[in-house]
Specification:
Helix content: 10-25%
Number of helices: 11
Oligomer: single chain
Distance between the termini: 93 Å
Largest sheet: 8 strands, antiparallel
Number of domains: 3
Structural class: alpha+beta
Number of strands: 23
Strand content: 15-25%
Length: 556
């Protein structure tokens, strides 16, 4: 009896302390005990240990990335929330980390271009993908939560996992709301929640997610350790005082880019003049993450109306200094400042089409000796550092065309329109009729871009479409309706779209719909906005969201 009384007394004293430990686990992702135990989907919970200062890991496609302490702390938060959520388990946590790595590089991104107030919340930089926010790039307009909600990493994790106790149950669906997610590949499961236009990207980060879980588990390294896989370029070490440990990584995520221009002599695609290209061009969707090619210090981070976005980073590599340049970002797509120290693989910017550009792409440069050094072939440099396998040039430019310079010229300028813009004329693409203004837009655009395919008049009874009125046309770029453009076709599409938008006033264009977004000349100050289908289309569908064609409507 005395023993029983002693045991009961001990439990009374210890109980509150156990509760405090639980509270500490929730408040501090680096605590050494898991918030709770979940024995499903992967076997047990993931006990979070100390968060290291950095972690270097390799993607499935062989790209090496380095995560800093902030990114790893966000990963610890995701793990803790997954531990607390019934039905998630290690497999679900891995899926969530894969999604966050793909969408934001594990960074809490504001989006001040769409939501200026998002910059008032703690964040790791500014994103520019539609109205997306935070670790999982969730969109308020899609119902994921308010700006305040989505700037909270714990809320984002709970929303991603979802389930009956999630903040958005039953829609939009989190992982636990996807029937049979446990039987899917982890990449497919991540895509089922994110519903991305690039569904194959997530699987690339599975080994990185697994490395994070292994490192952050209670058996992982101490908080002061810098975790680098043995045998990697980052672990080789160099002479004392240098910092070559990071290695070199490719500046864009795997699977989202295509090389469209080489280093060396070329015909300028805008002016038509013979020039020398100081870098390589990598076409990628607008908003795609741009990654620092190696550890280094930012020496240039600027945006000008003529030159567009421009970042230069100096790296202590190969026994000296080399600089990498990144060009054509939009103003809100630059996420670093002069003097910032960055890690290899860090998200520093987003792909844009500013300055001397024909469509969304990264112009990537390498300069031997530093910021003002000699331009060299980036393809050869990346290949030499095992970061790529690209075709190389054997030319050294004498007078480099830096692509971001104010070279002038905007391509072919459309001629003026004469006559009655609303007069109906024969549609050369169908047996119907279109307005004279629509026919003029088609003729001017085809003169500038002869390889485009057009379809205009269409009856479409019972809809609010302008096609039956002869005021709209759809344009494709070598792809079939119902099929997404290839990366090269997508770049062509953006080139045409930007040209029509730039000359909309002369052409008499009212609005454009392309790649899930809409632009209207009357709301030009708002830029490209999320397209909701206009009451006629499903914006998540390839055709309904206008991912396979550009829609052009002219003014009345």
């Amino acid at each position: 009896m005395k023993k029983l009384i002693v045991i009961l007394a001990a439990l009374v004293l210890i109980g509150p302390m156990v509760g405090l430990v639980g509270v500490g686990a929730l408040m501090n992702p680096a605590t050494t005990t898991a918030a709770c135990t979940n024995d499903t989907n992967g076997g047990g919970s993931v006990e979070v240990g100390d968060v290291p200062d950095s972690l270097t890991a390799t993607t499935k496609n062989g790209e090496q990335i380095t995560l800093d302490k902030k990114q790893l702390t966000h990963a610890a938060t995701i793990i803790q929330i997954g531990n607390k959520t019934d039905g998630v388990g290690p497999d679900g946590i891995t899926v969530a980390l894969m999604a966050a790595l793909t969408e934001s590089s594990l960074r809490m991104l504001a989006n001040t271009g769409t939501y200026p107030e998002s910059g008032d919340y703690p964040n790791d930089g500014n994103g520019s993908d539609h109205d997306s926010l935070g670790l999982f790039q969730m969109r308020p307009q899609s119902g994921w939560g308010s700006v305040k909600d989505l700037m909270d990493p714990e809320y984002q994790a709970r929303a991603f996992f979802g389930g009956p106790d999630g903040p958005n149950y039953p829609s939009p669906r989190g992982l636990l709301d996807i029937p049979g997610w446990e039987d899917m590949s982890k990449g497919e499961a991540a895509q089922s929640v994110e519903v991305s236009a690039f569904p194959d990207r997530y699987a690339n980060y599975e080994p990185v997610a697994e490395k994070i879980i292994d490192t952050l588990s209670a058996k992982g390294t101490s908080a002061s350790a810098s975790v680098v896989p043995a045998g990697s370029p980052a672990s080789a070490g160099t002479a004392a005082g240098t910092k070559e440990e990071s290695g070199v990584v490719f500046p864009l995520p795997e699977g989202v880019w295509v090389q469209t221009d080489d280093f060396g002599p070329r015909i300028d695609p805008i002016t038509g003049e013979a020039t020398t290209h100081s870098g390589i061009d990598l076409a990628a969707p607008d908003g795609t993450e741009i990654l620092a090619a190696a550890d280094g210090t930012v020496t240039v981070a600027q945006y000008t109306d003529t030159g567009g976005g421009h970042i230069v980073i100096e790296h202590p590599l190969d026994g000296g200094t080399v600089a990498t340049g990144y060009v054509h970002m939009w103003e809100n797509g630059i996420h670093v400042s002069v003097g910032d120290h960055v890690k290899a693989g860090q998200h520093i910017a987003n792909v844009g089409s500013s300055g001397h550009s024909t469509g969304p792409h990264l112009h990537f440069e390498v300069r031997k000796g530093g910021t003002d050094g000699e331009y060299t072939d980036p393809a050869a440099w990346l290949n030499d550092h095992d970061a790529a396998d690209l075709p190389e040039s054997d030319v050294t430019p004498a007078e480099p065309d830096t692509c971001d310079a104010d070279n002038g010229g905007e391509g072919k300028t459309p001629g003026g329109f004469d006559g009655d813009p609303d007069e109906l004329v024969d549609d050369p693409t169908t047996e119907g009729q279109i307005t004279a203004r629509m026919a003029y837009v088609m003729a001017q655009t085809q003169d500038a871009f002869p390889d485009t395919s057009w379809s205009c008049y269409s009856p479409r009874s019972g809809t609010k479409s302008e096609h039956p009125l002869g005021r709209a046309c759809d344009i494709t770029f070598g792809n079939q309706i119902g099929s997404r453009p290839t990366p090269a076709q997508l770049e062509d599409g953006w080139e045409v779209t930007n040209w029509v938008k730039d000359h909309a006033d002369t052409l008499g264009v009212q609005y454009l719909i392309w790649q899930g977004t809409i632009w209207n000349i009357d709301r030009d100050d708002e830029g490209w906005r999320d397209y909701n289908g206009g009451g006629m289309h499903d914006p998540s569908d390839i055709t309904g969201g206008h991912y396979d064609h550009l829609h052009v409507t002219v003014a009345e």
